[in-house]
Design a protein that fits this description.
This protein is 42% helix and 13% strand. The chain folds into two domains: 5-82 and 135-308, Alpha-Beta Plaits; 88-132, no CATH class. The chain is globular. The strands form three sheets. A five-stranded mixed beta sheet has the order 4-5-1-6-9, with helices on both faces. It has a two-stranded antiparallel ribbon with strand order 2-3. The chain has helices spanning 42-57, 80-85, 88-96, 103-110, 116-132, 136-155, 174-185, 187-190, 204-210, 241-252, 269-274, 278-285, 299-308, and strands at residues 16-22, 32-33, 38-39, 60-67, 71-78, 167-171, 219-220, 237-240, 295-296. Strand 2 and strand 3 form a beta hairpin. It is α/β, with parallel strands linked by helices.
């Protein structure tokens, strides 16, 4: 039986979550339609554009993503502190850019006069909206509904577009975050859609390399440092982009069981400094595709996560 989302998301333990959604029957509804002999790859850009659009409204950042022909991956970071600092008007304005809202909230947004009884309703609604702006289910629901409606309109058909609700996986420490980002960005390489990460269109690494304003969560800047900790760095991804590219390139050169694609053989020095070998990194680098393992991280962080979601045990691969 499926686990309720509220029992999987624990923002007091980690703000980072890896989410995956697949097309119905795993059909290539974003790839090549063999039956009608037409390309639907332009829908991948729809997903990428909508992801960035939602980060402007929600208090949720995108750390990484990869859009494939029949599914997509996204690594999200919930920014609770940002949501707390937003004014009531800012909260309403963000929410009503995505949804129509009630007539009362539209009047409030327009600056019209509100009486005392209505003001109590407005305050209660603002509290609800503020909570929604940090809700991963709301974020993913908006994204999936938008794409499904647009694709169905293009095809001239009704019906289900996505296979089921999205899968989520908690990322509990810096290592879990980095190896999941590598896993996500290397999806096209592993599937032999692209030869190298920089040629992998509709991925976060490709967007970072091609655009000045990416709309994505930043990496550490050169010269900055993050204290050694089991906690995930909240303000930025805890390595410089240069070092991340070296890690990504090195990881992509390793042969991974069950996958056809790889990059090469040379090993960057950054990996040696981190103390990894090809065997130990590959063992930890593949998040469980079926998401049976609901959280990734050290044993101590997994225990903390279990306490946070009030669960006595959790699947762990070691």
């Amino acid at each position: 039986m499926a686990t309720a989302r509220r029992k999987q998301i624990c923002l007091s333990v980690t703000p980072f979550y890896h989410c995956v959604t697949r097309c119905v029957r795993r059909a290539y509804l974003c790839g090549y339609d063999k039956k009608n002999k037409r390309h639907l790859s332009h829908r991948k850009q729809w997903i990428e554009d909508r992801l960035i659009r939602l980060t402007d409204a929600f208090c949720i950042d995108v750390a990484g993503f990869a859009v494939m022909s029949n599914h997509y991956h996204v690594v999200l970071k919930v920014d609770l502190e940002k949501a707390k600092t937003l004014s009531d008007h800012a909260v309403v304005d963000r929410w009503l850019t995505l949804y129509r809202g009630t007539p009362l909230m539209r009047r409030y947004r327009a600056g019209e006069k509100i009486d005392k009884s209505e003001l109590e309703t407005v305050r209660a609604t603002v509290t609800l909206y503020r909570d929604h702006l940090t809700n991963i289910s709301r974020f993913m629901g908006n994204l999936n509904e938008y794409i499904a409606r647009r694709a169905n309109h293009e095809d001239g058909v009704p019906g289900v577009f996505w296979e089921s609700r999205f899968k989520s996986q908690a990322l509990l420490d810096d290592e879990a975050l980095l190896r999941t980002l590598c896993y996500v960005d290397l999806n096209p390489v592993r599937a032999k859609i692209a030869n190298t990460p920089e040629l992998s269109k509709h991925t976060s690494v490709h967007r970072r390399l091609k655009k000045r304003k990416t709309g994505l969560m930043p990496f550490l800047k050169a010269g900055e440092s993050v204290a050694t900790s089991d906690k995930v760095c909240l303000s930025s991804i805890p390595v410089t982009f240069k070092h991340y590219l070296e890690i990504l390139d090195w990881t992509g050169r390793l042969v991974r069981a069950g996958k056809r694609g790889l990059i090469g053989k040379d090993m960057p020095s950054i990996i040696e400094r981190l103390g990894y070998t090809p065997q130990t990194w590959l063992l930890s680098q593949s998040p469980n595709v079926r998401f049976r393992q609901k959280a990734l991280g050290s044993r101590a962080r997994i225990r903390e996560y279990c306490d946070g979601i009030k669960q006595r045990w959790i699947w762990q691969t070691h």
